[in-house]
């Protein structure tokens, strides 16, 4: 037959990250980064460079702004996709197997619970049946005993 359905979680995550990057407002993110307080000299240097980028961005024409934001988004998406493909990146190969194992375990637990419930119903049903039969037998014995007394 055909191959079993295999879900490529890494590809799905990369696609979702790409969609998130395309939906984000780059300039708002850059402004928030500039507004943060630097923790060290390197952060301060980066913050100063970002301020320069924001100033240049504000001086651009609307068409250039659109082109610039598109280039930033594409570059960021490509960089993240490359990082996901690198060795040592988050590996999701065993995720599908782990999900299958968890589902099988849950189904096993449900099966055990159902089996226990069935056994309880069978046990109490048998006890109820036996109790009813015993009552009927006692009634019949009483009836026979009365009939025997009448005959005497």
Main attributes of the structure:
mainly alpha; 2 domains; 5 helices
Largest sheet: none
Helix content: over 70%
The count of strands amounts to 0
Mean pLDDT value: 81
The residue ranges in which pLDDT falls below 50 over 5 or more consecutive positions are none
Could you give the distance between the termini? 83 Å
How many discrete structural domains?
Answer: 2
Sketch the topology as an H/E string, one letter per element.
Answer: HHHHH
Q: Looking at the structure, what is the overall shape?
A: rod-shaped
The count of helical stretches stands at 5
Binned strand content:
under 5%
Radius of gyration: 37 Å
Could you say which structural class the secondary elements and strand pairing correspond to? mainly alpha
Describe the protein.
There is one protein chain. The protein is mainly α. It has helices spanning 9-23, 26-35, 41-59, 62-85, 95-151. The chain has 2 domains: 1-93, no CATH class; 110-152. It is built from 5 helices and no strands. The model has no long low-confidence stretch (mean pLDDT 81).
Summary, kept brief:
The protein has about 150 residues and is mostly helical. The protein is about 80% helix and about 0% strand.
Topology readout:
Layout: H1 9-23, H2 26-35, H3 41-59, H4 62-85, H5 95-151
Helix pairs in contact: 1-4, 2-3
